[in-house]
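A.,

Following up on our hallway conversation. Structure tokens first:
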């Protein structure tokens, strides 16, 4: 092989490529030739192994044994045929890769460094790297020089022999020749001195560079230590964060499991819904056909409804007419001898009350009374007992019975009979109790109260009925009467919420000086009907209208204002000051308001309701479907709304 300046590993690659060598046997002794300056024999062998073409197979031998080259990460191993490691090779990293690149300016550690440090490092890093590479090359040359030392020793021995020969020759030389030989030796010494001087200067420069490099490397080492400390702290935080994330991941995995199970349930439900949807689609098609039929039927029904509305209006007017006619007929029957009161025996009274059973004693507002509920001749009655403490004299009891027997009016409680033995009077029974409970206990915490709230139209009708009863008393013949004790507790309601007055206060004969008291009591009653409670505040219409009872529904403001005006005039009435205000005027004004209210309801502008309750004891044969599940009473509720008006 011709001597070349290229390294031997490159020469081998050129020969392989140019001559298409498929099998190449290389000895490590050849790789250690003098042409190899920058790499060792082992690294050169691995270089040839990596760079050779695929068609060439490489065999390495040393000392007569076949070696195998095995690469691993950035290094490699040389093993003999028995698998024993002969040598290990590790690639040398560059100076920059060993020291690493400097942190970016926005890193936390860069703030602690001086402003000139980065520039200074970048300025001298290339020189330092070159210096380090030179040192590495010198180390490699020293390894090779160790092999040449033996040759130099042999040369020195040869020189010593030559020097001894020269000394022998000098002894044989003349003076001029000796001088010439000494000059040559001096010249050699001077050349050696000059060479040593240059080498000393080079070593001095290398020493200065080494000191500068050491200083920069120390600075860099301190910076790297600071970076390492920061990274350690960061690693601690990162470890904590990692543990926290692991916990979160564990929780998320649990949630994912739950969600997966829910998803499976949802998918199952989706399949079921899909099946149902298919069934619904087919049902929808059938329903659309039925809907078309229903639309045609509805159109026919609308026409029939229009016809029925006309018939309903006619029937409603007939009902009102018949109701008034029945009330008048009832009063006429009460005045006839066929409906005259009768005297009952004590046995009949005890049988009617089941020997005055406590279960039949009436308890309005939760308090006991001396009134019992009874049944005489299949008719429910109320029997009022007069005890020994408040028992009237026989003459007073007879006078009371006589006067009550002469009073017959649809809105005054009728007397059915009496019993002189037990000092009791029998009245017709009113199923819905007194007006006081209907106004003041409805909607409160009274679980045993049976009435619902009275609507505004029913309250206005009750006011008209009470006014009619007062008019009957004040205009009675031959002797007018007064009530003298009018209040909501003296007004009771039947199953249709028709009001009836009772509890006339003696003396009953009419006195003009006491007529105003009934009118004032009626004015107070109208305020209670409007507000739903006792009113003791200012008598201003605006204040009263601002406190209307919401349980009565939406009051027509014009009618409520008229009632307020009438009530305030009744309450401000004093004897002799308002001659126009009498029971006749009051009845006319109340009837006007009632007529307007009936017209509003008939026109459908407001909703009206007829409410009634019948005691369960009088309706034991009624089917359970008609009983209220809470109060166990029969509820009759007929509503007229705007939809059908």
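Then the amino acids I'd put at each of the 645 positions:
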């Amino acid at each position: 092989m011709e001597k070349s300046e290229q390294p031997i590993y490159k020469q081998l690659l050129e020969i392989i490529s140019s001559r298409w060598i498929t099998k190449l046997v290389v000895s490590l002794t050849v790789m250690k030739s003098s042409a190899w300056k920058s790499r060792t024999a082992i690294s050169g062998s691995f270089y040839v192994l990596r760079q050779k073409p695929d068609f060439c197979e490489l065999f390495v031998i040393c000392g007569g044994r076949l070696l195998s080259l095995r690469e691993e990460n950035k290094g490699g191993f040389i093993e003999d045929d028995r698998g024993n490691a002969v040598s290990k090779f590790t690639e040398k990293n560059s100076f920059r890769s060993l020291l690493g690149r400097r942190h970016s300016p926005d890193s936390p550690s860069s703030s602690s460094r001086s402003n000139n440090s980065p520039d200074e490092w970048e300025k001298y890093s290339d020189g330092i790297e070159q210096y380090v590479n030179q040192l590495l090359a010198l180390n490699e040359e020293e390894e090779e020089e160790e092999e040449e030392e033996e040759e130099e020793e042999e040369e020195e021995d040869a020189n010593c022999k030559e020097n001894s020969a020269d000394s022998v020759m000098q002894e044989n030389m003349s003076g001029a020749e000796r001088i010439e030989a000494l000059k040559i030796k001096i010249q050699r010494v001077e050349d050696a001195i000059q060479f040593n001087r240059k080498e000393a200067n080079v070593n001095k420069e290398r020493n200065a560079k080494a000191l500068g490099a050491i200083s920069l490397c120390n600075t860099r080492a301190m910076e790297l230590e600071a970076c390492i400390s920061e990274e350690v702290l960061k690693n601690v935080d990162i470890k904590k964060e990692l543990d926290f994330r692991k916990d979160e991941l564990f929780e998320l995995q649990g949630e994912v499991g739950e969600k997966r199970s829910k998803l499976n349930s949802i998918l199952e439900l989706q399949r079921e819904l899909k099946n149902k949807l298919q069934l619904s689609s087919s049902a929808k098609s059938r329903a659309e056909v039925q809907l078309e039929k229903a639309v045609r039927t509805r159109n026919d029904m609308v026409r029939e409804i229009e016809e029925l509305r006309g018939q309903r209006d006619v029937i409603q007017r007939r009902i009102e007419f018949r109701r008034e006619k029945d009330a008048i007929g009832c009063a006429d029957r009460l005045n006839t001898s066929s409906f005259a009161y009768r005297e009952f025996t004590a046995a009949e009274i005890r049988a009617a009350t089941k020997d005055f059973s406590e279960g039949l004693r009436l308890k309005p507002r939760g308090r006991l009374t001396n009134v019992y509920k009874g049944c005489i001749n299949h008719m429910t009655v109320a029997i009022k007992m007069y005890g020994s403490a408040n028992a009237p004299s026989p003459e007073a009891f007879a006078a009371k019975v006589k006067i009550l027997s002469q009073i017959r009016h649809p809105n005054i409680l009728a007397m059915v009979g009496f019993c002189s033995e037990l000092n009791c009077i029998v009245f017709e029974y009113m199923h819905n109790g007194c007006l006081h409970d209907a106004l003041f206990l409805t909607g409160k915490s009274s679980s045993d109260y049976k009435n619902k709230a009275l609507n505004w139209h029913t309250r206005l009708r009750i006011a008209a009925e009470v006014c009619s009863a007062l008019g009957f008393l004040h205009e009675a013949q031959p002797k007018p009467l007064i009530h003298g004790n009018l209040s909501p507790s003296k007004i009771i309601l039947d199953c249709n919420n028709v009001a009836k007055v009772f509890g006339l206060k003696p003396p009953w004969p009419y006195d003009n000086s006491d007529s105003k008291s009934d009118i004032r009591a009626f004015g107070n009653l109208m305020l209670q009907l409007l507000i739903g409670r006792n009113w003791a505040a200012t008598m201003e219409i605006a204040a009263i209208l601002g406190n209307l009872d919401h349980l009565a529904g939406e009051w027509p403001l014009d009618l409520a204002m008229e009632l307020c005006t009438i009530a305030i005039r009744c309450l401000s009435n004093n004897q002799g000051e308002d001659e126009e205000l009498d029971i006749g005027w009051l009845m006319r004004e109340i009837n006007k308001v009632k007529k307007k209210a009936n017209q509003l309801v008939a026109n459908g502008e407001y909703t009206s309701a007829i409410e009634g309750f019948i005691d369960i004891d009088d309706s034991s044969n009624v089917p359970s479907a008609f009983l209220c599940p809470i109060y166990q009473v029969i509820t009759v509720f007929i509503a007229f709304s705007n939809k059908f008006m």
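The CA atoms of residues 331 and 409 lie 5 Å apart. Curious whether your intuition agrees with the design.

B.
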